[in-house]
Specification:
The chain is built from 19 helices and 3 strands. The protein is mainly alpha-helical and about 425 residues long. The chain has one domain.
Length: about 425
């Protein structure tokens, strides 16, 4: 994989397993068919959110063990220190320095896979949370409490800002693979969030830390999760989605994640040329996705006879986001994770950037986008029949269905083009 491809966080494109027209038509038809099926077969809300799931006591004892948590925390902190030292002692060249591969492949993309398998893992592994906890132990204070109370209106806005600055660094900044760029970003990130944790306590990380929020949202689709009573349970990913509650900034987080993958595909086709133009392009992409979502969800609320529903349907964006992330970054993870290991360990190992047949990779990408949208339709339908009157519940979902179809067509088209 070229360094230019790594800078944009995307791997080489593959031919779709079927012609583009049939892929787009099939994807749109799958979304529309799922909408019709939900209208006929799912007349009442069936999801129970954070109260659903079958308890797994042994898994809870293992996961909540102090020894387990601190072993994982210290291991990740040690690995972080090792990568920082390793990156600082090698030339600022992504061909020999592991920093870019570790950040953009192992961390950014690997966190998607880990969160889908195990839930919001970064809440446990986050080295900044570990540093804050160690400081609390050394200074004998409760890490949960800070000098001030965290205001509720802040919500997910800090995380939205953190994600936007990260994707700006990855997609727009002049040297995204430079060790110096990564050092400035994560150095500043650490200072900001450790200072905020000192001010507001460790609860700051729950919604303020961009990568904890990123992991938490993706982890809603894991088969393992926590109920309201704290039990670790096996559950349907749909119940995981339903457990997400509206909060300020949540929709913006989703729009940033959706828009950044689309923007990345566009930059493969069209070089913006300057940082200013690229920044404007990224902000326009986020604003366009946000406007489309707000238009459709507002129309759904008007038809359904309920106001202020934008945040209540934000959870339906999550499977779409995950589908886009898998489709867009699967080739990056395959090749660059190997490079990260080779450069970090200093070993000689031939890197096979395409161990899977291109047709299989393309099929995975198409399925990820289509399945993500179908799950989004189901999640939106269940929420609609809970919020809207029975006589308007199905009609109220039509704008959301149109949103899903539009995103499906756009995602498959950009996938084929990129």
């Amino acid at each position: 994989m070229s360094i230019a491809a790594l800078a944009h966080g995307t791997g080489p494109g593959h031919d779709l397993p079927v012609p583009l027209f049939y892929a787009v038509a099939g994807g749109a038809l799958a979304v529309f068919a799922s909408f019709l099926a939900m209208g006929m077969l799912w007349p009442e809300s069936r999801l129970r959110g954070a109260s659903a799931g079958r308890p797994v006591p042994r898994l809870r004892r293992l996961a909540d063990s102090v020894a387990t948590r601190w072993t994982l925390r210290l291991a990740v902190l040690a690995a972080t220190v090792f990568i920082v030292v390793r990156a600082a002692t090698l030339p600022d060249d992504p061909h020999v320095n592991p920093a870019a591969s570790v950040v953009y492949a192992v961390f950014w993309v690997g966190l998607v896979v880990a969160s889908l398998l195990f839930g919001p893992v970064w809440r446990v592994l986050n080295p900044l949370r570990t540093v804050h906890a160690l400081a609390a132990l050394a200074l004998c204070f409760d890490p949960r409490h800070g000098r001030w109370r965290l205001p509720a209106w802040l919500g997910y806005w800090p995380a939205a800002a953190g994600l936007l600055t990260f994707v700006w660094m990855e997609l727009v900044s002049p040297a995204p693979s430079s060790t110096a760029t990564l050092a400035w970003y994560f150095g500043g990130y650490a200072v900001v969030h450790l200072s905020a944790a000192a001010a507001f306590g460790s609860r700051w990380f729950d919604r303020g830390d961009a990568f904890e929020v990123y992991s938490d949202l993706i982890g809603r689709l894991a088969f393992v999760g926590r109920r309201d009573d704290g039990e670790i349970v096996l559950r349907s990913p749909l119940n995981g989605l339903d457990s997400l509650r509206a909060a300020p900034g949540l929709v913006t987080v989703g729009c940033v994640l959706l828009a950044s993958t689309g923007y990345d595909s566009v930059t493969v086709l069209w070089d913006y040329g300057t940082v200013a133009a690229g920044t404007a392009g990224l902000l326009i992409a986020v604003a366009a996705v946000a406007a489309l979502y707000w238009l459709c969800v507002t129309a759904a609320g008007v038809i359904g006879g309920r106001r202020h529903v934008a945040g209540l349907f934000a959870h339906s964006l999550l499977p779409i986001i995950v589908g886009f992330l898998i489709a867009h970054y699967v080739t990056l993870l395959i090749g660059e994770a190997q490079r990260a290991f080779v450069l970090s360990a200093g070993v000689t190992w031939t890197i096979d950037e395409s161990p899977l047949p291109p047709s299989l990779v393309a099929a995975i990408q198409v399925l990820a986008i289509i399945v993500g949208h179908v799950l989004g339709v189901i999640a939106a339908h269940d929420r609609a029949v809970r919020l809207f009157e029975p006589r308007t519940a199905v009609a109220g979902q039509v704008p959301m269905m149109l949103l899903m179809v539009t995103l499906t067509i756009g995602g498959l088209t950009l996938l084929a083009a990129g």
